[in-house]
Amino acid sequence: MFNLNGKVCVVTGGNKGIGRGIVENFAKAGAKVVYALGRDEAALKEVESLFPNVKGIKLDVTDVAGIKAFVASIKEEHANIDVLVNNAGITRDTLIQRMTDDDWNQVLDINLKGLFNMSREIAPVMMKAGVGSIINISSVVGIDGNIGQTNYAAAKGGVIAMTKSWAKEFARKGAQVRVNCIAPGFTQTDMIKTVPDKILEAIAAKIMLQKLGTIEDIANGCLYLACDASQYVTAQTLRIDGGMIFGI
Ligand code: NDP
What we know:
Elements: E1 8-12, H1 17-28, E2 33-38, H2 41-50, E3 54-58, H3 64-77, E4 83-86, H4 101-129, E5 131-137, H5 141-144, H6 150-169, E6 176-184, H7 197-205, H8 215-226, E7 237-240
């Protein structure tokens, strides 16, 4: 039931971590092709080598001209882009008094404007075809906030607000273009490698299921939102966080 047979999918940050797990899940679920986007060419080559229906493409989500050229090239080959996962993201964590303009700008540029750059080009393709699914990767931090993450929380909260706006805007004139968010809790990837073990243990102790999330946990939620099993689901934010209560 959770299949992507014949679908054309695009996953930003598809070469590592959660994005790579999403790409692998989509490829296994029968997607016609999964375009894995990222900046690190070696990692792109590696993910491409795993499945015949995965193509690694070097593309930075802040590169507007590059995104336009990429979407134009896909339109020459395919009638639609059925699924877009806006997953690429970074952190530059520190307390606000130490946060530089560069920390703020980089995180907002990639984690918020990057999604706008991608969706501005791809949503019209989906609307023209009359069908599509966009999944934005936010974070529990975008809902609950977190110490040392002013920039990240602002971006991820903005992602949820954009999701709700796009769900309304892209469904006009009967288009079945759905837009949803996933808000992962702490998930075992490179992104949280800088967090000391002691802190991670303390976090896990406050999670109802008493453990951190895995890449598969997030990728499975993403597959549900991408495929037709969720065809009546839009404008939602799915927390995948093991039942996390974000304290101070
Ligand atoms: P990783 O650091 O493991 O991977 C980040 C991915 O984003 C990489 O593929 C990286 O590719 C890509 N990326 C970063 N900047 C750009 C850019 N400018 N253009 C294109 N690609 C870019 O992180 P995760 O897998 O953990 O995170 C994935 C998403 O999940 C992010 O949006 C993150 O905020 C979110 N998230 C993660 C949580 C966690 O606990 N891990 C919790 C909540 C949300 P490359 O290296 O090639 O640039």
